[in-house]
Amino acid sequence: MAAQVTIFELLSKMGQLNASDLHIKSGLSPYYRIAGELRRINIPPLSAEDVEALMAPVIPAARRGQYDQTGSLDFSLQTAEAERYRINLFRAGAAMNAAVRRVKNVIPTFQDLHLPPIYGALIERTHEGLVLVCGVTGSGKSTTLAAMLEWINEHRHEHIVTIEDPVEYVFKPRASIISQREIGIDVPDFAEGLKYMVRQDPDVVLVGEMRDRPTMNAALQAAETGHLVFGTLHTADAASALGRILEFFPRTDHGFIRTALANSLVAICAQRLLPGADPKKAPMVPATEVLLNTPATRELIRREQDAELNNLIAASEKDGMHNFTTSLAELVRSEMVFYDTAIKYAPNAEALASRIRGIRTSTTGVIGR
Length: 369
Description:
Layout lengths: L6 H11 L3 E4 L6 E4 L2 E4 L7 H8 L8 H7 L1 E7 L5 E9 L2 E9 L13 H9 L3 E6 L6 H15 L3 E6 L12 E6 L7 H8 L6 E6 L3 H12 L3 E6 L4 H10 L6 H11 E11 L8 E9 L2 H8 L6 H7 L8 H10 L5 H7 L3 H8 L3 E2 L3 E2 L3
Parallel strand pairs: 7-11, 7-12, 8-9, 8-10, 10-11
Antiparallel strand pairs: 1-2, 1-6, 2-3, 4-5, 5-6, 12-13, 14-15
Helix pairs in contact: 6-7, 9-10, 12-14, 13-14
């Protein structure tokens, strides 16, 4: 098989098909993800040796040892055609596997991503504190963060420092100056990068995914000392993000962490991607949820009343917050997604159906009859 196709041919085809991801697994044919669905590539299944040979040309020689030792490796790739990819190698069943994400060269705007106006308003008025973007794998968190940073890059005279594993979007300095540091190339690990970050005189900091206690601690400290800090969390919604943060710390520290969050948190923006009603216009569309750190939010965080956060979000639309039900209803109203799609992805299908009952779409007739 290895002689029949190269990794560069598979990557090139991603752009032609507008595929977001490429999955390479030992024992199977490769798969593309197109408009949210996995589609098998019409080539024979790959053996473990095939996968090793296929991926060998793109694995950084200096980092191959990391994969051999840990069974995992993240890195970025830029091809001769200036296309960029984020690649994750992982060992499963004693064989190499790969997940490849295509990264678009042009950094999108909030409008390009079909994000609600609160995203732009939030970044425009925020100069310090912690902003978290949450969602499951493949929900567009990195792209949303890129749009946030690019807005700052275009409109403010600031120093933006990122620590990424790997670097995905490459920013060009505009109004701001930008220092992008990649794990394994510019700095050995997050801990080392975060240790010296504040000595680089940053105004804005991106620490990527909050994976552990040192990263979370560094983010909170930077936010509390006047920096604007961005990060991601792997949680399904805004309210569960607080629980995820607390899991990094022993229970004896929870009171301190809650106080730090109440003081420094700006917003938690959660999102999930849905297939769009018009694949040519928008193959995937984000449904969003936004929790803002209002006085009421701070009080709930301090009092350990996290279970009330969902009710607060639902009742605080006048303050700029909204939940997934509100977002999905608006997507149906604007005909960005079909009713059946929205119901499938809704955290509360009954509440969504009630909210949009009687609305018409261009293809499904009267909704909720």
